[in-house]
Amino acid sequence: xxxxxxxxxxxxxxxxxxxxxxxxxxxxxxxxxxxxxxxxxxxxxxxxxxxxxxxxxxxxxxxxxxxxxxxxxxxxxxxxxxxxxxxxxxxxxxxxxxxxxxxxxxxxxxxxxxxxxxxxxxxxxxxxxxxxxxxxxxxxxxxxxxxxxxxxxxxxxxxxxxxxxxxxxxxxxxxxxxxxxxxxxxxxxxxxxxxxxxxxxxxxxxxxxxxxxxxxxxxxxxxxxxxxxxxxxxxxxxxxxxxxxxxxxxxxxxxxxxxxxxxx
Length: 264
Ligand code: URA
What we know:
This protein has helices at residues 3-19, 50-55, 62-73, 103-120, 130-137, 142-145, 167-171, 176-191, 209-220; strands spanning 41-47, 81-87, 124-128, 159-163, 224-231, 241-242, 248-258, 261-263. The chain is of the alpha/beta class. Helix 1 runs antiparallel to helix 4. The longest helix is centred in the middle third of the chain and has 18 residues, at 103-120. The radius of gyration is 23 Å and the shape is globular. It binds uracil. Residues 45-49, 52, 58-59, 61, 63-64, 85 line the site of uracil.
C-alpha cells in the first residue's frame, strides 16, 4: 500500500470513530477539519462556533478571519497548513449560544485529536488558546507559555507552539501584537530561520566584522533589542571609554531577546 493511501485510510478510520464520541451538549454537525496532507503546520483550535457549523469549515467566523489575515500578514502560506479543533463540534449553551467546552468534553475528545497529530506528523503544531494547550500539556496558562516551542513525549520531533486564541485578539485588541509575534516566530521556526543561541559563546565580544555581522543579524530578527550603558563604576581594565573629561562610560553592551530568551 502506498504511504499516501495509508494516510488517507488512517484519516478515514479516525474520522469515523471520532464521530461516534457521545457529545450530548453539542450540535449535531461534525467538522473533521481543513486537512491537507503533508503540510508542515497544523493549527488546533478549541471547538466550532455557529458559522463553522453552517459552512462545515473550521475557523470561518470572525475569529477565523482574524486567524487567516494574521497568517497571511506573518508570511505563513495557508495552503501549507491544516486547521482542526480539539472538539470538532459546537458546544451549545442553554439558549443555543456558543459555549466553552467543559473539561469532560475536552477529555473525551483528546485521544482523537492526539491521534490526528500522530497521523499527520507535522513539523509544527500551533495550539490556539488555553484549551488546546490544556489538551496537550495539561496546563491552561496560555499567557505564561505562549510563543515557547516544546516537544512532547510520544510525538517525535514535532514542535508545539502555544499562542493566544484569535478570539482573544477580538475582545482585547491590545493582544494583537503578541499574537502576530507568535505567528512570526512560528513562520521562522518553519523556515529554520532561528539563531541557535546554544551554539554561541555565553558573552559575545565581537572581535571581527564577521562576528559583528552575525550579532547584528540576530538583533535584526529579534522581537526586542536592548542597549545597556554602565557609567561611573570602577572600570574593567580593557573596557574603558573616555566620553569626555567628566564621564567614564565603562561598558556598552547590546543584546537581543530571542523571543523571550535574552542574549548578549
Ligand atoms: N473557534 C475555534 O476554536 N475554532 C473554530 O473553528 C472557530 C472558532
